[in-house]
Amino acid sequence: MSTGTPLKRAAATVKRSLGPLGERLGALGGGAAKLPGKVPSKLHPAAVWREASQTLAESLAPLWKQLRRLWFAYAWPVLSVVSILGWVVLGATVLLWIAGQAWGWQEAKSAAFVAFLLFLFAVAFILGRSAYGVLLDLSRTRVAVGDDAVGSIAVSNTSTRPLLPADLELPVGSNTAVFHLPRMKPGQVHEDLFTIPTARRAVIVVGPVRSVRADPLHLLRRRVLWTDPVDLYVHPKTTVLAGSAAGFIRDLEGMPTTELSSADVSFHALRDYVPGDDRRHIHWKTTARTNKLMVRQFEETRRAHLAISLSINTDEYESEAEFELAISVAASIGRQAIREQRELDVLTQKGPLRCETGRNLLDDMTRIVGAPMRRTAVDLARTLADTVPNASVVFFVVGSGVTATQLRSAAASVPAGVRSLAVRVQAGAAPARANIADLTVLTIGDLDDLALVLRKAAA
């Protein structure tokens, strides 16, 4: 049996009929009624309207999603065929016809009729299906700044009838290249070559190749995609550092420590054989002389682990050219370390870069986008010290805006015993070497100077 006054039962019935809106209104009104010592207040109209709007939006969200899907699946492909000029002509046609009907202007009706005929004439040019076989081929998808990026488009007529002349569009980044196709017989192949400028570091999206069929007045334009887009990586310019890093980055000979090891490359002494030792390390001559098994004892060496801190804070660089020079310096040092099979970590203010292979490193270097930020090169150096605590050589690659005081603070974050160097780029500066406490500061103004200053640092 239900309890409560008839008014409460009626309110409950209305709440159930309203569904989610009724529950929200009940919660909104019930909160004030339960406060001790308070008189239940009326619902504010703004709160009711807000709750009703939210409920309506949630109810219509699935419908809106379905309409959006249908629009892009069916309506947009048809409407996108009409160019801007076509929409202007179509609007003028409707206005002229309405004016002719309203005021009896035969000239307006005639003009509307002519415009309608133009549309029918344009439709005849874009109807039909083209049977193309399109092959987009880039000779190399990864080039360095200044290298030639050459590609080709091979188009074949795969149908059994001749194809009318048409245009092919090839988007290249923010630009679009247009290739004109002649009238093609069945089985005929037409090939065009193109060159992409690589004056600056970037990831350029090439494609997709699309054919364009349009009427002479360009009222209608029909595009058909034939290939997938291809990413062209324009890597930063790098220089070869063969032998220049060997003076201070040790590998095979390493830096010996006081810790002893049973397997390494630095021979230390002989000791008695212990069960479990590798028999390959038994020194047979000493064993024969002493009449007991003797094994080699080694000193543990420290394998070179290179860490590079690359600041991408553009406030620390005077120009874009200086910023690009810093990226080229870091890429050159990192690429040389990978070539020599050394452990490598590269860190920027936006996080670490992939260093598994030289290709991965240069790809991530290409994606770097500098921006003004609060985190400076000093903050990045502290992060590097925490992220790569086992580094043996640390490079700080910074711009000319970084002061000597900041470099001293960056070097202070490096653990004792770690070789630290700062490469300070300054466009047009002469190569130089200086010391700030235990930090070696190398100044370069051109990428070709990098090998020279590294040799000076190793001297």
From TrEMBL:
This is DUF58 domain-containing protein. The lineage of its organism: Bacteria, Bacillati, Actinomycetota, Actinomycetes, Micrococcales. Residues 270-426 form the DUF58 domain. It comes from Arthrobacter cupressi. InterPro entries: DUF58. It comes from the Bacteria.
